[in-house]
What we know:
Strand order of the largest sheet: 1-2
Mean pLDDT: 80
Number of helices: 11
Bound molecules: zinc ion
Structural class: mainly alpha
Number of domains: 2
Helix content: 40-55%
Order of helices and strands: HHHHHEEHHHHHH
Shape: globular
Largest sheet: 2 strands, antiparallel
Amino acid sequence: MPLYLDDAVPPPMPREFLHVLLDCYKFIGEKPVNPAMAMGLLRERLLPLLPEVHKPLFDFRGQTSWDTLWILYANLASASGGTDRQLIASAAVVSIFVRHITQPPREVEFPAYLELASFVRMATLLDLPKAHPHLGAQGVSTPLYAFCRYCWLPQRARGVCKHHSASPRPVDKVGVPVCAVATHKQVQRLRPAFEKELIRIVSAEEWQFHESEFGSAVMVPPSGLANWLKERRPVLAQQLEPEGCRGEVRQLPALLQALYGNEGVDVAPAIGGAVHLLTPITARAEAWLCAWKGRKSWGGQRQGAGKPAVHPNNKDTTQSVK
Ligand SMILES: [Zn+2]
C-alpha cells in the first residue's frame, strides 16, 4: 500500500512540513509501506525539523506497528498543547501517514485497546507473562482483556458490557462498579473524553518506562499496591478509600471490588498472583473515572436539556491539528 496523498487534505502547516510530506510521497512512489518503513521515513525527514527537546518523542523500542505510529501522533499532538505549530504540523504529518496508507483512507478510530498494545510491549521487555486469562464469573467465561467499548468491564455481547448496551436488560445495581450506574447515553457521550484520557495515561506511562530504562514501576505491583494506586491511579484509588484502612493485605480484594463489583471475587483466582495483568484495566478505569469527574463541565447537561453544544472533548482529535 503506497501513500495515497491525492485523497489527503493537509491542514495549513509550515512549508517545510508540507515538503516532508511531498518528499515522502515521491520517495514511496508505488512501493508498499509498512509501519517500520513509515517510522523510518518520519525519523529521517520529519524529526530533523523539530528542536532537540522534542526528539525523544520519536523514541520507541521494539517492533513498530500502526499503533506505535498512532501513539507517536498522540504524543506529538498532546506535547503541542494545541499551540506549538511545529508539533501540531508534525502530528498532522504522522496522522496523514497513518490514515492515507489505504484507499479509501483508513477511518482513524481510537486504536482498539491501545492500553493492551502498550502493556504487551512493556511486559515483553520485562519478561512478564502476558497471558489473557478468562474470567469465570457466574459460569460465563469472559476474556479478561475483552473490554466494553465504553468502560472497563468485560464485554458480554456486541462489544459492550451488560450495563451499556443500547437497551440494557434490568441488572441488579447493587455491588456493581461506578461505571455501571452511567446510562448508555451517558457513556456514549463520555467516550471521546474517556479515550483522550486513556491516550494521555498510557502514552505518558510508556514514555516514562522507556525513559527510566524499563525501571519505572508501571505495572500493578504484587506488594505496595496502595501506594502504587495513589501515585499512578489516583482517581481509582479514591474509589477504594472506604476500604483504605484495611491495610495492604486487603487492598487487592478492595481493588477488585472497585473494578468488578461483587464479581471481583472471581477475578482473583483467574489472575493468580499475576496482579500486573491488571495494569490495562486499571488504566481504563482511571481514564474513565477522570473523564466522568470532568463531565460536570459539559454544557446543557441536565437530563432532558436540548442537544448540547459541541464540547471540545467531543471533537475528533484527528481534526484538531491546524
Ligand atoms: Zn460498559
